[in-house]
Amino acid sequence: MIKVCKFGGTSxxxxxxxxxxxxxxxxxxxxxxxxxxxxxxxxxxxxxxTDLLYETYEDVAACRDTGPAFEKVCDRFRGIVRELGLxxxxxxVLQETRAAILREDTPDFCASRGEYLAGRIMAELLKVxxxxxxxxxxxGADGRLxxxxxYSLLAAALKGKRRAVVSGFYGEGKDGKVKTFSxxxxxxxxxxxxxAAGADLxxxxxxxxxxxxxxxxxxxxxxxIRALSYKELRELSYMxxxxxxxxxxxxxxxxxxxxxxxxxxxxxxxGTEIVPTSRYTFGGRVVTGIAxxxxxxxxxxxxxxxxxxxxFTYRVLSVLYKHxxxxxxxxxxxxxxxxxxxxxxxxxxxxxxxxxxxxxxVHPDNLRVIRDIALIAVVGHGMTRSVGTSARLFAxxxxxxxxxxxxxxxxxELNIIVGVDNENYERTLRAVYEEFFM
Length: 438
Ligand code: ASP
Known about the structure:
This protein has helices at residues 15-26, 49-63, 68-84, 90-104, 107-126, 133-136, 147-158, 186-197, 230-238, 249-254, 312-322, 350-362, 382-385, 389-399, 425-437; strands at residues 3-7, 31-36, 130-131, 164-167, 170-172, 178-180, 201-206, 227-229, 259-263, 272-275, 289-302, 336-342, 366-379, 406-409, 415-421. It is α/β, with parallel strands linked by helices. Aspartic acid (ASP) binds next to helix 8. Aspartic acid binds at residues 8-9, 37-38, 48, 50, 114, 168-169, 183-187.
């Protein structure tokens, strides 16, 4: 049995929590490979090491030298090594790191040093080898993971080791420079290591006991989700349930490796298990979870006989493509079509320009923009099997006095997405939660 364990920023926040991590790892011989994040927040209002390192890069870019943010980084790591009583020459490592930051001179390199230093310290604490992700996780010229090289390099590095620590969050680009994943990307690194190790389980250790059926900031005490399928996870985390990076399922899914979310601070809690859809048991529930996000804009088009006009969608999409704008959903009717787009993509006049170009390209009878829309995704394989789910959903929203602005039932039948005005977001979430979970 091989388990790969990834520990997040709060689990790595200080010496005390790192010692806890070491105890968790050492309590189970199957926990062979450990992937670490950089130290995160120790308390509300604290700053993550990664954020301090991005600030460090700004200092380097502006003044050709590291500044106060890097001093804070050094103090955190000195403190951790002191708390752990490790015989490591942390001063020398920090000196080297500073020189490397000045030499390499990129934001990604700078940001990656949190995981690098945390990994070296954790390896020292566990008395096991450290594997630098730069040597083993490789990206291709397109910026995406070079799976073939990565898996063979990683497998070779892990081979024959009883235990090892791998730094999360980064790898090396085709240009030989360090490249990071997007924020929270150590989850992806953990999944890649799990795949390369041929693990039986990918344990993702964080500071919550798994997934909840709804955002606890909005719904009081939401139900705990014991098991999710990969697909449900993808839908929920894409829509804002951010326990796990939404891209971390791809490496493990291909190899059928289940993920278990565990809480470093309550290791006895069962957590949430994420399994391949084929191995998933429904347990009679209709909806697994509800998630959502605010701030989308919808471009709505109608044109008589749109359905018969060949190339209509193609021409609209060409406009979005030209502006490098990606869309989230395209709900369609016979003569209507809407493009739901994250409002961030449409700032600084981009929306106006796109609308003008769409008018020119397809001459719609009507083009309208609906702004400030929140999307709510109701997710669950169980919905396919039960009659009347949408009736219950929309009745609940109506009882809450909320007007539905948009509906999209994904072709997977795994989720129904409802668009409401931003201001009705919280109210709608609560109403839908009550309907399916209370
Ligand atoms: N340390 C990085 C971040 O804060 C990556 C991670 O923790 O997964 O985003």
